[in-house]
Amino acid sequence: MPLTINTDRLWNDLMEIAKIGGTQKGGCNRQALTDLDIEGRALFARWCAVYEFEINYDSIGNMFARMKGQDDTMSPLVIGSHLDTQPTGGKYDGVLGVLAGLEVMRTIADNGWTPMRPIEVASWMNEEGARFAPAMMGSGVYSGMLDLNDIRAVADIEGISVGDELDRHGYSGFPHAMGKAMHEYLELHIEQGPVLEQEGKTIGVVTGAQGIRWYDLRIRGQEVHAGPFPMAMRRDPMAALPNLIQGVLDIGRMDEKARATMGQIHAYPGSRNVVPGHVDLTIDLRHPDENTLNEMHDRLNKLLADLAEEYKALEVDIRLIWHSPVVAFDDELIAAVRKGVETHGYSSLNIVSGAGHDALMVARKVPTTMVFIPCRDGLSHNEAEYTEPHQVEAGANVLLSAVLDRLDLT
Amino acid sequence: MPLTINTDRLWNDLMEIAKIGGTQKGGCNRQALTDLDIEGRALFARWCAVYEFEINYDSIGNMFARMKGQDDTMSPLVIGSHLDTQPTGGKYDGVLGVLAGLEVMRTIADNGWTPMRPIEVASWMNEEGARFAPAMMGSGVYSGMLDLNDIRAVADIEGISVGDELDRHGYSGFPHAMGKAMHEYLELHIEQGPVLEQEGKTIGVVTGAQGIRWYDLRIRGQEVHAGPFPMAMRRDPMAALPNLIQGVLDIGRMDEKARATMGQIHAYPGSRNVVPGHVDLTIDLRHPDENTLNEMHDRLNKLLADLAEEYKALEVDIRLIWHSPVVAFDDELIAAVRKGVETHGYSSLNIVSGAGHDALMVARKVPTTMVFIPCRDGLSHNEAEYTEPHQVEAGANVLLSAVLDRLDLT
Q1: SS3 for B334?
Q2: For chain A, domain boundaries
Q3: C-beta atoms surrounding A46 within 10 Å
Q4: CB within 8 Å: B210 and A227
Q5: ∠B89-B151-B144 over CA atoms, to 5°?
Q6: What is the pLDDT of residues A83-115, one digit of tens each?
Q7: Which of the residues A190, A224, A244, A385 would you substitute to probe the B interface, choosing the one with the greatest number of B C-beta atoms within 10 Å?
Q8: 3.30.70.360, 3.40.1390.20, 3.40.630.10, 3.30.230.10: which CATH number matches B211-324?
Q9: How large is the ipTM?
Q10: Which residues between 207 and 226 in chain B have a beta carbon less than 8 angstroms from any beta carbon of chain A?
Q11: What pTM did the predictor assign?
Q12: CA A2/CA B378 separation, integer angstroms
């Protein structure tokens, strides 16, 4: 019989911490660096104190709970995720990864083992990016993808900056995030998509993450009155939208791994009796293969060139505003996850992460992988987010087995 | 030689009043019931006082300058428009119609004539609808299309209501707008479109106004994450837009008098990495023939039924939120305008108003017509709005001739 986590303890912890910022619809609102976020972290720290896991912070507000190793000078194996939530978030996104990490350390301690190297559970600051943009701040600063001082200057909608809050909560005096050595990094997370549920699989073995390209697009025409101006004389930017939108969706369907999303669209000045002067929209292209993502990029540019040719009265401007290259996770860690799946006899599927996660940032510096479990209807960032106790159990067991394997604890 | 207006005097008045609320780009910002609007009205009143034209108001803040008739108990012939402007408006929209009315009365007085019935110049309150929506408030209340108490309750973006401002400026105690009898109504206005300029015509003989139908449309899909969710499993409302937008534009091209405008479009929640849960857009359909406008309405409903059939995973809701029937102006007044055009030897074109005007409201109660003059590039609601002195002259002369004809002053 393989070692297993204590499902009731983990599930009870998930339900208990969800009361901090709990919403009427059963979700959670515990946004980064708010008093509720700090209250959630304090509860987590009390659970850690029972096992004498030491708590440390860094200057961007990342929180680490440490189980000592036999050789405590070795760099830690780190398990992590985040305790902050969306304003109308659920009980599992992020929180599961942190509490499952704690449960792994408790299970090892309960079994009387001391690992060779230390284990730490990281709770990264502001993964969600809801109160302060961008997302994945703590892990981004840790990995060197984001600059500490730039991030300190970011303000929320009320003008309160990240730096103000780091000062207020006493995090600013801790060591700089980037100095911390880590041996390996593992993260358990709900899938936030429907694939595992649809395929009837218990565990997602995450092999990497999609590459992402974000574009801002503007189609310029001429702002004129909806009544007097004849149709034939108009330069209506809406006229280019049918071919544009169809073309972008076709790019997203070039193979079954591709994704194309237009999440924002807005006409200016936005008056119902004025032909828009311009229409702005955003395009999000994703693919797990970098070459194919490049091909999607080329097809988008070709589409826009064709549009410019067809609608000479309009101007089409495009700007690539972000490119996140494809991430490939560490082969040895992936193998350890697969071994954990086999150990427990769970069904599984190789999967590529479509959403952003702290692990994608950490992977720039440290060998990393992730484990996914299904969530109901693929819903996340939603108060209705749900994953069943037996699914939580399976994910945490695989995480435990992978950690034991990497630490040669058997 | 027909009687003509004093072009320099009228042009100088236009330039003088434009200083009140004048903008750096040469436009005007004199929004309804602001202190600047009142200052503009006070200047107008001082010009009227020179000729002893009496000023009166009604309880919605409409302003009337009166030239006495030989039989002063007769209902007045009214010339009017508005002195309020858009926030980045021009010098001519509305203001021209009021000052040309004054110029017509001055010219008659200078010529030593007293008309049989009184003449009045109306400056309607809040034609623009910029600070307080809807537009055409003063003429709308006058004509019974809007309710005085409803309109008093309308607040601007700072929470100040129309009623507050009517009280503050002392208008509330005047008689109710609806009680006022008028014999006939004439309004001179810039075209706010490009047709007269394109056709090289001096005067637009306005035969009526387009009928208008306003719709709010919502396409519902499902809000999911842009990364994990496979394209084939999405219910992306953007997918219906190509056929929808093309279909609406095609309805707008069913004949050369038709218009179709989508001025607002917005995706919710409006995050670049979230497939929209729904997309809202507005549709504005116009036609000068009521039967054809009905046909456009039917074609729109057919289009939406086809879309619902094609995209079964989406829901399409449409709401008709406003229907302004086709307005036909008064035949005798149109004939008087045509006679004025011939008297002065101007070129002209029959035209249907595409924009909203106080005259469209007044026409519900009183025999009405309008005169249009060209504006450069068809631009209006824009600080670059411009019409040349000789064009202003032509418009005011036609207005004068039509008034003289209707009053048998020759």
Answers
A1: helix
A2: 7-209+326-406, 211-324
A3: 10
A4: yes
A5: 100
A6: 999 998 999 999 999 999 999 999 999 999 999
A7: A224
A8: 3.30.70.360
A9: 0.83
A10: 210, 212, 214, 224-226
A11: 0.83
A12: 80
